[in-house]
């Protein structure tokens, strides 16, 4: 039960953060604005899936990782610098309780702006001629909350491994820049190399298409787009490239579990 106490306290601390309140307001405003823009000007009937499709692109995969990283990058290292971590560990909490309790607590906290950000546009547009698919809408909210949880896991794992808040801040900023605006730039040198060399060398057991597919999967936002796109098109595990969808979901679970475990490994060996 010890991790539950950590998660409960961490959730209460996170939801009182001004950063979370500000980013929640920004997310709500942007989702409501996008929903209003995609509404037909002529007053015709439109689908809730059209709203989700418009929001699903850059808005979700840009803001949700940012909110998660901002909320969780100092989860452990911040308490370590303030000295409150020693007090926390003097209670009947193991270091694993602290790491995974904070992942759960901050994951629950990030669910609040996600739910508000999607429910409010639905309520505002419900007065119009909206074909509302409740199953798709709720399912997409859950998928988006899962994306937030993945980035919370990455940030908490990183926070557990760092010795100073400055390093944690730089790491969170670096992760965000790598996964969001710079991921295409990571692929660019490889594209140039393959064009100049005429293809993949014979000793590489993958084709060029398979390499770029793997690069796409390695980015959690890329894997999320694969899963959510298939879900909105009613093809999740039933149509399209099912093996790609399974690989994308497995990659998301890998990002959720491996960083906290690596962070715990480093945290267990650290002197406070």
UniProtKB/TrEMBL annotation:
<keyword id="KW-1133">Transmembrane helix</keyword>
<feature type="transmembrane region" description="Helical">
    <location>
        <begin position="50"/>
        <end position="76"/>
    </location>
</feature>
<dbReference type="GO" id="GO:0005886">
    <property type="term" value="C:plasma membrane"/>
</dbReference>
<feature type="transmembrane region" description="Helical">
    <location>
        <begin position="110"/>
        <end position="131"/>
    </location>
</feature>
<protein>
    <submittedName>
        <fullName>ABC-2 type transport system permease protein</fullName>
    </submittedName>
</protein>
<dbReference type="Pfam" id="PF12679">
    <property type="entry name" value="ABC2_membrane_2"/>
</dbReference>
<feature type="transmembrane region" description="Helical">
    <location>
        <begin position="246"/>
        <end position="267"/>
    </location>
</feature>
<feature type="transmembrane region" description="Helical">
    <location>
        <begin position="137"/>
        <end position="161"/>
    </location>
</feature>
<keyword id="KW-0472">Membrane</keyword>
<feature type="transmembrane region" description="Helical">
    <location>
        <begin position="18"/>
        <end position="38"/>
    </location>
</feature>
<dbReference type="GO" id="GO:0140359">
    <property type="term" value="F:ABC-type transporter activity"/>
</dbReference>
<feature type="transmembrane region" description="Helical">
    <location>
        <begin position="173"/>
        <end position="194"/>
    </location>
</feature>
<keyword id="KW-0812">Transmembrane</keyword>
């Amino acid at each position: 039960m010890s991790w539950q106490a950590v998660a409960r306290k961490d959730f209460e601390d996170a939801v009182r953060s001004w950063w979370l309140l500000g980013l929640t307001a920004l997310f709500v405003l942007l989702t409501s604005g996008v929903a209003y823009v995609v509404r037909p000007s002529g007053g015709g009937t439109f689908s809730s899936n059209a709203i989700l499709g418009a929001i699903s692109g850059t808005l979700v995969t840009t803001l949700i990782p940012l909110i998660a990283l901002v909320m969780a990058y100092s989860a452990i290292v911040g308490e370590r610098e303030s000295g409150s971590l020693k007090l926390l560990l003097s209670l009947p909490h193991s270091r694993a309780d602290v790491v995974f309790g904070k992942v759960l607590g901050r994951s629950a906290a990030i669910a609040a702006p996600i739910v508000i950000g999607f429910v409010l546009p639905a309520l505002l547009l419900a007065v119009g001629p909206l074909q509302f698919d409740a199953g798709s809408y709720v399912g997409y909210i859950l998928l988006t909350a899962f994306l937030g949880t993945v980035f919370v896991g990455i940030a908490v794992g990183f926070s557990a491994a760092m010795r100073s808040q400055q390093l944690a801040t730089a790491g969170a900023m670096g992760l965000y820049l790598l996964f969001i605006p710079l991921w295409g730039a990571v692929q660019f040198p490889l594209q140039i190399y393959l064009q100049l060399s005429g293809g993949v060398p014979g000793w590489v057991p993958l084709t060029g298409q398979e390499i770029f597919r793997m690069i796409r999967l390695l980015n959690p936002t890329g894997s999320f787009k694969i899963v959510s796109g298939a879900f909105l098109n009613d093809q999740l595990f039933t149509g399209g490239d099912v093996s790609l969808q399974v690989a994308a979901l497995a990659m998301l679970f890998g990002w959720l579990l491996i960083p906290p475990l690596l962070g715990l490994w480093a945290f267990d060996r650290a002197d406070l």
